[in-house]
DNA sequence: GCAGCTATTATTCAAGCGTATAATAATGCG
DNA sequence: CGCATTATTATACGCTTGAATAATAGCTGC
C-alpha cells in the first residue's frame, strides 16, 4: 500500500493554487458544487490539505472572493494617459474580456447571492464597490475638468453612479448573453451613451 | 407515539407555499442553505411532502426561478397610460420596492450563478431577459414615435440595450447598498440619465 | 547523509443531504 | 355513517459533506 508521491510547493504558491481552484469550481459547479474534495482534485492535491492552509472552507471561500473583486477592479484602475483616454479605456476594459466573460459573472453572482447570508462577504463586497465607484468618480472629475465642464463633487457623484450603473448593467448583459450582441456592439453603445450622459464627446467619432 | 395533526391544503395552494418557502430559504440562507428540510420547515410541513408535489428538489427550484422572473418582469410590464407616463413608471417601478430590495437581488444572483451550470435555468433566464428587453423596446418605440423622433428598429434596439443596462445596473446598486443613496436618488438619476440618452424630456422637470 | 521539521496523504467520523417507503390522518362520496 | 382515496407524516437508507487525526514523504540545515 504505497503512498502517493508529491512535491512541496514553494512559499505561498499552494495557497494561491487552492484559491484559483476554488474559483474554478464555483464558476463551473456553483457554490454548492464547490466542495472541499472537488477543489482539492482541481488543485491536484488531497482534501485534507485545505485545512493546512485555511482555518475552514468558509475562510478559503472568503479569500477567493477577495481575489475576484481584486481582479475585477484591478484592471479597470490601471488605465493610463490623458483623462479622455482613461475614461474610454475604463469603459472598454470593463466590457471586453477578460473582465466581461461568463466565468466572471458566475463568480460575481455566486458571491452576491451570499452577501445577505454572510456578513464577512458583505463587508468585502462593500469595500470593493466603493473602491470601484471612487476610481470612476475620480476619473470623471479629471475628465470634466479637462473639458472645462462643471466638476463639483455632487455632479461627479451623480455621474459616477449613473455610469457605474450603465457599465455594470451592460457588463451583466454581455456576460450572460454575449451571443445576442454583435462584435463590439456593447462597447459602442456604452461609449455613445456616456457621451450623451456627459454631454461631451469622448473621442470615439474617429473609429 | 402520536402523529402530528395536519390539514389538507386546497388545490394547488400547497404547491405555491412550497415555492414561496423555497425562495425564502434561498434568499436567507443561499442556494446551498435551501435544503429540502429547511424549506419544509418554512412551509410548515414535513420534508417528505416535497416529493409529493415535485419530481425532485431540482425541479422545484427551477419552478421557483420561474416565479422570480415572473415577479420581476410582471410589474414592469403592467404600466399604463401615454407612452411618456409608461416610460417614467417603468423606470420608477424597477428602482423602488418591491422590485428593488435585497431579497430580490439575492434570488436573482443565486439563480444567475447557476445559469452556467444548469441548462434548464439557463433557458428560463434567456426567455425572461428577452421578454423584459422586448417590453422596454416596444415602450421606447411608442415613446419616440410620440415625440416625433426617429424610432426605427435599430435605433430602438440600441436604446433598449443601453437603458436596460442602466436600469439593471442601478437596480443592482440600489439592492446591494440602498443605504448609500438618498431617498429617491437612484430614480432621479435614472430619469435624468434616460432624458440625456434619448435627448428628450420625459416630464420629470415639474417635480 | 542523516535528523528534524512540516507539508502532504490517507483514513475516519458525525452530521446533513436528497430520496424512498410505509403508516396514517383528513377528506369526499355513496 | 362507513369506506375509498390521497395528502401528509414518520422513519430509514445510502451518499456526500467539512473536519479531525495519524502516518509519512519531501525538504533543509548541518
Structure notes:
- Two copies of one chain form a homodimer.
- Chain A is mainly alpha-helical.
- Chain A has helices at 13-29, 36-43, 50-53, 57-77, 83-94, 102-112, 119-146, 153-177, 185-198.
- In chain A, helix 7 packs across helix 8 (153-177) and helix 8 runs antiparallel to helix 9.
- Chain A is elongated and about 75 Å long.
- The model of chain A has no long low-confidence stretch (mean pLDDT 93).
- At the A-B interface, helix 1, helix 6, helix 7, helix 8 and helix 9 of A face helix 1, helix 6, helix 7, helix 8 and helix 9 of B.
- Chain A binds a DNA duplex (30 and 30 nucleotides) through helix 3.
Quaternary structure type? homodimer
Largest Cβ-defined interface: A-B, 49 and 49 residues
Counting DSSP E segments of at least 2 residues, the number of strands of chain A comes to 0
Number of helices of chain A: 9
Radius of gyration of chain A: 20 Å
Structural class of chain A: mainly alpha
Strand percent estimate of chain A:
under 5%
Amino acid at each position: 500500500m504505497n503512498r502517493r508521491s508529491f512535491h512541496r510547493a514553494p512559499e505561498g504558491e499552494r495557497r494561491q493554487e487552492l484559491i484559483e481552484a476554488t474559483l474554478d469550481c464555483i464558476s463551473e459547479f456553483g457554490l454548492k458544487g464547490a466542495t472541499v474534495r472537488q477543489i482539492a482534485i482541481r488543485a491536484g492535491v488531497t482534501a485534507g490539505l485545505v485545512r493546512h492552509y485555511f482555518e475552514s472552507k468558509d475562510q478559503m471561500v472568503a479569500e477567493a472572493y477577495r481575489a475576484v473583486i481584486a481582479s475585477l477592479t484591478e484592471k479597470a484602475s490601471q488605465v493610463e494617459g490623458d483623462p479622455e483616454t482613461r475614461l474610454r479605456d475604463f469603459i472598454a476594459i470593463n466590457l471586453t474580456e477578460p473582465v466581461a466573460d461568463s466565468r466572471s459573472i458566475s463568480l460575481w453572482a455566486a458571491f452576491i447571492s451570499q452577501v445577505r447570508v454572510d456578513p464577512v462577504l458583505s463587508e468585502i463586497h462593500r469595500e470593493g464597490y466603493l473602491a470601484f465607484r471612487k476610481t470612476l468618480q475620480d476619473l470623471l472629475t479629471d475628465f470634466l475638468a479637462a473639458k472645462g465642464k462643471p466638476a463639483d463633487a455632487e455632479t461627479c457623484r451623480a455621474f459616477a453612479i449613473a455610469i457605474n450603473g450603465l457599465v455594470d448593467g451592460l457588463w451583466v448583459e454581455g456576460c450572460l448573453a454575449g451571443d445576442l450582441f454583435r462584435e463590439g456592439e456593447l462597447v459602442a453603445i456604452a461609449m455613445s451613451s456616456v457621451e450623451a450622459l456627459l454631454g461631451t464627446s469622448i473621442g470615439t467619432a474617429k473609429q
